[in-house]
Amino acid sequence: MRDFESVRIIETLRSGVSSRHLSALFSYGRESLLEMVQSDLDGLAARGGSRAVVLRGDYGEGKTHFLNTVFNLAQQRNFAVSFVVLSKETPFHRLDRVYPKVACETYLPGENEAGLEALLRDIRPDSKVAAELLAFAQDELHPKIACVLGNYFQAPESYHVHLLYRDLVGDWLPLPELKSLHRFNFGRPVKIEKFTPRLHVWDYFRLLAHLIRVRGFAGWVILFDEFELVGTLGVTARGEAYWNLGRFLFPGEGAGLEATYTIFSTFSGFWSVRLLAERRPDIEEVPARLLAKGEPRKAETVRRVLNTLLQEPVNLESLTTAEIRRMLEKVAELHARAYGWEPAVDLDKLLTVTKHARLRTKIRYTLEYLDLKYLYREEPEVRTGTLAEVSLDEVAAGEE
Description:
Blueprint: H1 4-15, H2 20-25, H3 31-47, E1 50-57, H4 63-76, E2 79-85, H5 95-104, E3 106-107, H6 117-120, H7 128-140, H8 143-154, H9 158-168, H10 175-186, H11 197-200, H12 202-214, E4 219-225, H13 235-249, E5 260-267, H14 269-275, H15 282-292, H16 296-311, E6 314-315, H17 321-339, H18 347-353, H19 359-376
Parallel strand pairs: 1-5, 1-6, 2-4, 4-5
Antiparallel strand pairs: 2-3
């Protein structure tokens, strides 16, 4: 008899897309890394502050799977978690494009739906939480944010609440419209200095980190996958991306994210292509470009970031043969339950055939082997190949 939950898991494995559910089922290996993360999270929960790490690993060896494992671990420790895959639409040199994705992909412990609505929906205007948020925004952030919050707590019309909520998740409300809402809600005009998303978006990150903490959560975990796409940007955009990375790695006095732990996952080849290149490595070219533009402070920060990437990356440990064998045993067990059969599988043979293959390929090979054996009831012959890796060459669009 078929077990449809096992069918769902097998189909997810077949797609090659990692998920939090799979990470909970296949949590083998990387114990030392997980212990480091646990220690960091416990420290942030107790003392506040922030910490960021850059995780380095090869394609297909479980970086996304590890991030999902951290996701589950953080939620068990009462952390809000945001998981964002960087892309052309979410490029790291433009935090004003990254923040909306972060806000919309924030999950609270015990909540199935992502977003900030659960953090904001039951805050009363006269509550201690509202007063704390308004005081923080007024003292620490761009004046626009305090105005948005004040109007959000007071707005009597649901449409106005919706507009103000959209601003808080990165769909920026134009200042003339915000001023009009303020006059409607409070009966008086308000002056707000110019707001530029590219320049002031960091204050929204700070607001969200503070909001999470004020609402009683241990802190905030941000997981950025595929950071290597920074390598496809032009040199000017890469400079901005490294500068933004510096905000997470080296928060300035009073300008960091409260109780926030950030992991950047990146392909190992990023180091050889961009950081250790024989011609024009970024550690020389990017700071020089910034100095030529008259930005010595930014150049120094970027140089510090690049030195940190070269000296202090966190490497994703390879799974041992025994750990991989346990994983393939689990795959065979799930396949048997999914399709109601008892496969006879020589796992040692599968491990030998896929000896030099990536972890993702080993799993796909095992699934293909099991599928064919189930369909034809004979020993199948499956071959593996290697796909071309994503190029990290610059693209013109990166100079936006």
